[in-house]
């Protein structure tokens, strides 16, 4: 069975840029999974540091209004991996999930770590590259011309164990099922 992870779509991240396209793609994928009665699990990252935009009791840590209405299940986490010290693996096993689709924020941290952790736990993984977003850019990493999503997608694709698709490829490959 397939399941969709929607990672860290929270005010403290989404409000730091224009993620209209990414959120629209995520919503389309969520609706597709819900129409097929497949599990959609939201991950919510929080920090204990009050200065963090994702401080647990702040509005920044809340799910963003654009997608929070779709959240039937929310699992909280405190690290980039959605699996580390959470009940995610247990929930997926209970649901009979063997194929996990990854969307959300931040591409190079929580989405990538989760994709690798899922593979390490025996899941088939599909990473939908342009249904992820990041608040970081080429200046953050001091790497002129860096396209973070493309870089992460390429690395995961080259691993030859994680399927990497863009939104249009997802629609072609999976929406027709």
TrEMBL record:
Isochorismatase-like domain boundaries: 3-156
One family name in Pfam for this protein: Isochorismatase
InterPro entries named among the record's database cross-references: Isochorismatase-like_dom, Isochorismatase-like_hydrls, Isochorismatase-like_sf
Keywords annotated in UniProt: Hydrolase
Molecular function as annotated in GO: hydrolase activity
PANTHER family: ISOCHORISMATASE-LIKE DOMAIN-CONTAINING PROTEIN, PEROXYUREIDOACRYLATE/UREIDOACRYLATE AMIDOHYDROLASE-RELATED
Entry similarity comment: Belongs to the isochorismatase family.
Name of the protein this chain belongs to: Nicotinamidase-related amidase
Organism this protein belongs to: Oceanobacillus limi
Lineage: Bacteria, Bacillati, Bacillota, Bacilli, Bacillales
